[in-house]
Amino acid sequence: MLILLSDGAGLTSRQAATVLARAGHQVEALSPRGLCLCRMTRHVRRVHDVPPVGRDPFGWLDAALGIAARRGADVLLPVQEQVAVMALGRDRIEAAGLATAVPSFQALAQVQDKVSAHRTLARIGVPQPPAVIAASAAELADAAARLAAGGEGTPLRLPAFAKTPVGTASAGVRRVSSPEELRRLAADWDGQDAFGQGGVLVQQPVAGPLVMVQSVFAGGELVAFGACERVREGSAGGSSHKLGRPWPQAREHLARLGAALGWHGALSADVIDGPDGPMFIDINPRLVEPANALACGVDLTGALVEVAMAGPAQASAAGPGTVRPQPDGAPGARTHQLLLAVLGAAQGGRRRDVARELADAARRRGTYRDSQEELTPGGGDLLAPVPVAVAALATLISPPAWRWFVGGSAGAYSLTPAAWGELTATARALVAPGPQAGRRGGHPGRPGDQEISLR
């Protein structure tokens, strides 16, 4: 099959491309001009220029459908935040003869932004750290004033993490440790209109390792699951080294979340393994870096393709069993992404840290011992080492160059607050009055589940 990836710039798309090509598929990708990892691998036949989804989500969708038609693509596979506009435009994608795997827009809207996700987790009973929602800068500043006066009358404790509703790759997340920092942040975010989409979330920290949990659902049924612990942090909060691990508690909570939402497609989360068990701190309604799960024996990318080929109508009508669930893998695989490790070493501003990282990788010592490369594996792919070589050279010359690599990649696929606002406004405008308006192929047992059609 010809599979067109919704993104070609990011880590997830690069990993997915390798998995799909090795499975015998022809792979092409969509990306704005600029830094793009999928341009540097033989596993992607072609990368097509599209508008950035964060600047023009509907322009991105129009371009994607036009390219898919010209290329004769079979599947438009969501591998980044384009899933939001794809969920809203699912009818158009299906009408174009393309298979895809996306949830209903109503389901996606319940977890896409951090404030909505917090409320959804609370409603369903998925554990998360204590948090408050500040609806305005005045509320946040008032909480800071009460904290400065001794903490009376506020459920907040510092330090805490303040989070804007929409942000990718740790964007929009700030750690605050004093009332004065909180007051300054309230003023800064007020000037950026950060409170305009339901307020901001202020969440207490939880001690424990961060674990990335990933899953694929078919009509609300969990069909693939993987979990990996972040052994080392790379650039911009990413995970440069991972360890696959079993975690039945987190699996149970994620399965309950997906079932409650009638989820269709990929669903991931960042979870802290705290003293009281798993605490969900972030939800990603998409696939996230599937290589470690594959090393543990779970093919999340393949499962997502299978869900796409089954189709939402078939999955919901036929019920469980339409897509065959994968057995849990054998956790314990160690994997790494040298590119993130090099960029993470450069964040300290010292060339010798970058050089030490490269030496450790070359000698397979420390965290590289018995570890597999996720992002740029060999296997005859002569272009694969290029991103690491370029990043290593650039940061050895000037360590601050790490910012260019991180910002250039995330900017290609990030869903901005403006774009999310445009999508939600369009969804509201397209829902006609009446209890059955807009219904199309909703999941059984989900009254009010609506599919939005873009025509």
CATH topology value of the largest domain: D-amino Acid Aminotransferase, Chain A, domain 1
Radius of gyration, in Å, reads 21 Å
> Stretches where pLDDT falls below 50 for ≥5 residues?
316-321, 434-455
Largest sheet: 7 strands, mixed
Brief descriptors of the model:
single chain; 455 residues; alpha/beta; Rossmann fold; Dna Ligase, domain 1; D-amino Acid Aminotransferase, Chain A, domain 1; 4 domains; 4-stranded parallel beta sheet; disordered C terminus
How would you portray this structure in words?
This protein is of the alpha/beta class and 455 residues long. The chain has 17 helices and 15 strands. It has 4 domains: 2-103, Rossmann fold; 130-203, Dna Ligase, domain 1, CATH 3.30.1490; 210-335, ATP-grasp fold, B domain (D-amino Acid Aminotransferase, Chain A, domain 1), CATH 3.30.470.20; 339-413, no CATH class. A hairpin with a 2-residue loop joins strand 9 and strand 10. The protein is globular and about 65 Å long.
